[in-house]
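Handout, section 3.2

Students often ask what a structure token actually looks like in practice. Rather than define it abstractly, here is a full record for Cell division protein FtsX. The first block is the sequence as you would receive it.
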Amino acid sequence: MSFSGFKYLTGQGLHNLTRNKLMSIASIGVLTACLVITGIAALLSVNVGNFVDYLGAQNKVIVYMQPNADEASIQAADEAIGAMPNILGYTYVDKDQAIEEMQGWMSDGDGESYGELLEPYKGDGNPLLASFRVTVDDLTQIDATVDQLKALPGLYSVDAPSDLAGTLVSLKNTVNIAGWGLVAVLAVVSLVVISNTIRITVFARRKEINIMKFVGATNGFIRLPFLVEGTAIGLISAAVAFGLVSGAYLGVLEAVSRSGTGLLSNLYFTLLSYRAVWAPLLIGFVASGAVLGGFGSAASVRKHLKV
């Protein structure tokens, strides 16, 4: 096919958008809505995953050592923890550090502190246990990691937030399944809408198409304008959806950043920045719009044209 022929057929495909204005607008509107919901679901899934990982990192596994654990046992435990898989990081807190932390917790926040009550327990009278505070990498493997920690030399006990970890993992999995399930459903809806739009165009031009076939037009020559029309619908929808989702996401980031303190303040630091999401979002929208538009057109033409 010559360039002039390709240019002509592309122009015909774009002209089809204006021939069926109402259906084109309806298709763009429906596909835009589908892409917007898909984008929101994807961003929600990714950010919920980040937030769950953040909460998991805040809930450490505490490994308490025996009261009479010597330096050799502590050193052996330190080396064993460092060699374990699924360990993101860990710190050692000796008895003196533990009681100093407790004194800090006993402050009432008004400049007064009841930590002085613990002064007699410092030194040899310190009843607290030395411990390792371990952050696991994969919450789904926390039970296996706890079993390994229980085999450490000089161990007294292991305090692990296993129930919370299970809840967080379930939350993350539920959001992922629901989000991507919604994406699949909306993709099917988009294909149906675009296919129906192209089907109307095919029906309106059925006489012209029969004449083209009669004079020897190839299958590709007949199909190309419809593929261009469907792809154009997809790309226009992608551009509109990208603008809407970008504006909404920037608004959410701005609102959360102004929340001050509390849970929302912590949430802000787990949200992906717009700089990190705009490129994948744009590529995803453009690719999805073009693919859905092209496939919707191809399905309609293949079914209703006997070429």
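Discussion prompt for tutorial groups: The CA atoms of residues 139 and 236 lie 41 Å apart. How would you have guessed this from the sequence alone?
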